User: Fold these one by one.
Assistant:
Number 1:
Amino acid sequence: MIQVLNSVRAGLVLYVPEKVRTRLRTLHEERGQAFVEYALLLLFIAVAVAVTTAFTDLGTKIQDALVAVKNAINSALPSGGGGGGGS
């Protein structure tokens, strides 16, 4: 029974047109290539941001903005707030 199924499966593979098989192989290769390209682009952006923040005062400005957001959130919370569980 298994041999029959294997031969049927092998026969089905033979009926796939060559153009379709070639296109499927190309898509598989392009998917891997696209992943590498996106990874390199992300790496380039990360290095550019790191260099920019290291050699300018942009890092300090970002930190000041985040502290301001944190302070705004803390001032909006009720004083003495500790999670809001009631008993």
Number 2:
Amino acid sequence: MKVMLLLFFLMFGGFLVSNASLPVYISWLKYLSFFNFAAEVLAVNELSGVIVLFDPIGFAPIPLNGNEVLRNFGFDAVNYTRDFYCLLGLAGFWLILALVLLCVVVRE
């Protein structure tokens, strides 16, 4: 069960499937995944406004605009603050749920 839940979070978090390529009728599922918010915060923090030099061995180096990379993955720099607070909210929710379940299961 844990593996299936983790796979769900990974799939809709932007790691296995790009958020930009999700069909409209299931695109709302990405908001249930904490990986979605974490990946967007991390990617925006690292790539926003920078030029990345992609230098594969045996080929000419290619400069990549970080904002274009973000756009290709379906991330938006405007959502940085929202994603950060959503991560805090999800962490608080899961901690409170764990505390409630612990109190229900362990009764003394």
Number 3:
Amino acid sequence: MGAVQANYMAAQICAVIVNILQAVFKGKGQHPKTISPLDFIPDWGGGDDSHDSKKSTPSKAETVDEMKEFFQQFTRAQSKKKKKKGINEHRRISSKPPG
């Protein structure tokens, strides 16, 4: 079995699960949209979008400075988490042995 067939089979399973869950948990008077397996298959190369009703607009390419700023913000956020985690772990550790 090829990768395309495997992806489509997985997409079919996902679509069935979502459609069942929508039918079970729909609100009174609601008619949820039926989900197609094609809704779960990504378009990796800008191929045929005939199954997609909403056309995406081409996005602006990210500049090197924008990428650098994103990773600096990410690093700062991770550093804050590590510092906070270290403080919390220190509070839990007792110098007395258990018992």
